[in-house]
Amino acid sequence: MLSEKDFIANPTASIENGNFQWSAPSNIALVKYWGKKENQIPANSSISFTLNNCKTITKLAFVKHFDTSTSSVQAKKGFSFSLLFEGKPKEEFKPKIQKFFERIAIYCPYLKAYHFTIDTENTFPHSSGIASSASGMAALSMNIMSLEKALHPEMTDAYFYQKASFLARLGSGSACRSVKGSIVVWGNHTEIDDSSDLFGVEFPSKIHKNFNNYQDTILLVDKGEKQVSSTVGHDLMHNHPFAEQRFAQAHENLSALKTVLETGNLQEFMKIVESEALTLHAMMMTSMPYFILMKPNTLEIINRIWKFRTETKIPVCFTLDAGANVHVLYPENVRDPVLQFIKDELVGYCQNGQYICDAIGKGSQLIIDN
Ligand code: DP6
């Protein structure tokens, strides 16, 4: 079992400059992460579907500007990087990256030796209300690991992906589930082999064919800025009256979902997933201060989905993240009738009629390596 100190790099090779480019996907949690301890340790284990189309593409160019082995003044100065969004400088994004570099500095001591140019873009519309922190932090972590691998040519693939997920977690918890695999577990769970609080692992059992190419159509109900940052939201689980029961429930739901993913029981799948979504929002409604992130149209959509499911017996369900958008989840073999239903009955509840068709994906991908 790896511990934090196993992730401290001690480079053996040296490299002057180069650039990498990686894409990393967004993910949607089925059992939700909501509540954390010091150093980005989750209060409970969570599991997510990796998405395929919603992703961040990040290029990292680097040039060595001094040797870290000399105790030069510059070394103490900190990190040197410029940040571009869609090719143009974006100062607003810099503090987040600065904070991320500070958090991972102990594990990546080579970072201060380089000047970085980070150029990033998303495949989904900016301000769609789709969080880009998971895909963004994962894409950056993949690039950093490509640099670390160049400094450490003997690194194994297993370590490469584990540490990428470990670093991504320090950027944003859910980002550690956007590194590798279609279904990813993060957080110690007694029944999931090798699961860890420190990084995400691929769901280890054979997944039933009902979940092959599972569909996620994201209905953009409210594209506004988040009312509550996830950091503030997680914090409200400290001293929350229902926290302990919630954390225990998440553990049980993950046990139950494990069986469901193995056996393909879609009725049970829908029950667990919808209950998790509503519980997440119930936690927000019962914290102090309390807040409601659903919008009237979120509820309209949920009711329409329930009515359609009762009438047609088609196994379609919803989940939510910390916002008003609705993820509509369904198997591939009912795609045509569900898309027709979405067009006929749900699009009217979306802001400017916007929705994004996605499906289960595989994780990050290397695009440029030199
Ligand atoms: C509701 O990963 O965004 O999407 O660790 O503070 O960056 P930080 O939080 P973040 O929280 C995601 C919460 C969630 C549920 C989930 O993805 O599991």
SSE arrangement:
Blueprint: E1 17-31, E2 36-37, E3 41-42, E4 46-64, H1 73-77, E5 80-85, E6 88-89, H2 94-104, E7 114-122, H3 133-151, H4 157-171, E8 183-186, E9 200-202, E10 215-219, H5 230-235, H6 243-263, H7 266-285, H8 296-312, E11 317-320, E12 326-330, H9 335-346, E13 355-359, E14 365-369
Parallel strand pairs: 5-7
Antiparallel strand pairs: 1-4, 1-14, 2-3, 4-7, 4-8, 5-6, 8-9, 10-12, 10-13, 11-12
Helix pairs in contact: 3-4, 6-7
Ligand DP6 binds at residues 29, 32-34, 40, 46, 131, 133, 172-174, 230-231, 234, 280, 321-322.
In short:
The chain is an alpha+beta fold and 370 residues long. It has helices spanning 73-77, 94-104, 133-151, 157-171, 230-235, 243-263, 266-285, 296-312, 335-346; strands at 17-31, 36-37, 41-42, 46-64, 80-85, 88-89, 114-122, 183-186, 200-202, 215-219, 317-320, 326-330, 355-359, 365-369.
Task: Characterise this structure.
The structure is a single chain. The protein is an alpha+beta fold and 370 residues long. Helices cover 34% and strands 23% of the residues. The chain has helices at 73-77, 94-104, 133-151, 157-171, 230-235, 243-263, 266-285, 296-312, 335-346; strands spanning 17-31, 36-37, 41-42, 46-64, 80-85, 88-89, 114-122, 183-186, 200-202, 215-219, 317-320, 326-330, 355-359, 365-369. The strands form three sheets. Strands 1, 4, 5, 6, 7, 8, 9 and 14 form an eight-stranded mixed beta sheet that branches. A hairpin with a 2-residue loop joins strand 5 and strand 6. The longest helix has 21 residues, at 243-263. It starts with 16 loop residues before the first strand and ends with a strand. The model has no long low-confidence stretch (mean pLDDT 94). The structure holds ligand DP6. Ligand DP6 is lined by residues 29, 32-34, 40, 46, 131, 133, 172-174, 230-231, 234, 280, 321-322.
